[in-house]
Design brief:
By secondary structure, the chain is α+β, with helices and mostly antiparallel strands. It is built from 6 helices and 21 strands. Strand 17 and strand 18 form a beta hairpin. It starts with a helix and ends with a strand.
């Protein structure tokens, strides 16, 4: 019975073995994976922490008119580069032109009046003034006779007290007119006084200032870029009425540009104003720009808990645009005992970084979980290895823990 069962089992396993009772079958083995290796060494390297930031204008300037009015034109669009003194917007100028014309006309009148005062009265003017004085004297004489007549009638009870007071008032007014006419005649006869000349000159000066202000307001209906930069935003459009000082454009001064990076408290103590840094941008891979630290903060940002360090980069050619992602590298002295491996040696597996360490006695590799530090070009700082160990640098992406390998290049111990 036992023999029959064994025979059945042999038949069922016929596809997996060559026969029953004839020995053990050897498992198939994969050929060794060709790899390149290197020996782990500790090095002394410069500490160069890298932080990411964004390119922003060196400063932002809100541009507005010094006078109110209706927008006639805006000559630039968002993203346009502008030069100093370039016209960027204008108001409708008609009202301000009329104000200039009025002020200049008033200035001319004031100048003519001053010339007349300095020239003095003409002979025909003196005759007119003398005639006015004589007429005023005759009117006064008549008012005096009328007053004396009314006064007599009042004593006789023929007129009221009110009529007497009216006659007295008319006499007083006539006397004041005589005095004024006499003064005008004698003043014209003797020429202008110092006060008259100073008053006329003052009127000319005021009129000139009014004309200058009017011309200045007309000029202020045109808006010019104060510095080279890029238009970040249009804040008004043609036809809108704007107040004096109301922003109509937002200008970003882009030479130089500024990069703000959040630095940890550990690195902050080694960063000084004026320090030179290296700047890389995703927009220009492989290219390095030189920057300079211009601001080191004394307090951290409350939410990020990092310190906003500002770096300035020259941008005379305008290649650096607002919003570009930048990487700023700081040089902070040297660190010894650092293990550096090519980036190709590190493989990410199950959410962690790992390398494959060669076991010289078996020809196999063992997976070693590691942690990474600073990147130095094509190499990366690796923690979790010992000096003298041999690590796979090429071919790691084809390996699993325990695989046999065949060294075809690199540096083996």
């Amino acid at each position: 019975m036992r023999g029959i069962v064994f025979a059945v089992i042999c038949v069922m396993l016929a596809g997996a073995v060559s026969g029953c009772g004839k020995g053990t079958v050897e498992p198939e083995t994969s050929p060794p994976v060709p790899v390149e290796v290197t020996v782990v060494r500790e090095e002394t390297v410069g500490y160069r922490p890298e932080y990411s930031g964004t390119v922003v204008p060196e400063r932002q300037v809100k541009l507005g008119f010094l006078v109110p009015g209706r927008v006639d034109q805006i000559t630039v669009n968002q993203g346009d580069r502008v030069d100093p003194g370039e016209l960027v917007a204008a108001l409708e100028p008609d009202d301000y032109r009329r104000q200039v014309q009025l002020a200049e006309a008033q200035q001319q009148l004031a100048e003519k009046q001053l010339a007349k005062v300095l020239a003095g009265a003409r002979s025909e003017d003196l005759e007119v003034l003398k005639g006015l004085w004589e007429e005023a004297g005759a009117a006064y004489a008549q008012a005096e006779r009328d007053y004396l007549r009314v006064e007599q009638l009042y004593r006789e009870g023929a007129v009221t007290r009110q009529q007497l007071e009216m006659a007295e008032t008319q006499l007083k007014v006539a006397g004041e007119r005589v005095t004024a006419a006499e003064a005008r005649f004698k003043g014209a006869e003797t020429g202008p006084t110092t006060e008259d000349v100073e008053l006329a000159r003052g009127q000319v000066e005021v009129a000139g200032l009014n004309a200058m202000v009017a011309r200045s307001k007309l000029e202020d209906t045109r808006l010019f870029a104060p510095a080279p930069g890029v238009i970040l935003q249009r804040l008004a459009e043609k036809g809108e009425t704007v107040a004096a000082g109301q922003p109509v454009l937002l200008l970003g001064v882009m030479d130089p540009v500024k990069i703000r990076v959040g630095v940890t408290s550990t690195d902050l103590s080694s960063i000084l104003a004026g320090m030179t840094v290296e700047v890389g941008l995703d927009a220009y891979p492989g290219e390095t720009f030189t920057g300079r630290v211009v601001s080191v903060p004394v307090a951290a940002e409350p939410q990020a808990r990092t310190f906003p360090v500002e770096v300035q980069v020259e941008n005379s050619d305008g290649r650096l645009k607002s919003g570009m992602v930048a990487r700023v590298r700081f040089q902070m002295g040297e660190t010894s005992g650092v293990v550096l491996l090519p980036l190709s040696a590190v493989r990410r597996m199950a959410g962690t970084e790992a390398v494959f360490v060669l076991q010289p006695d078996t020809g196999q590799v063992a997976k070693r979980q590691v942690s990474l530090g600073q990147i130095y070009g094509e190499r990366v700082e690796v923690h979790g290895l010992k000096a003298g160990e041999t690590v796979v640098t090429a071919g790691a992406s084809y390996l699993n823990d325990g695989d046999a390998v065949r060294v075809i290049g690199g540096e083996a111990r």
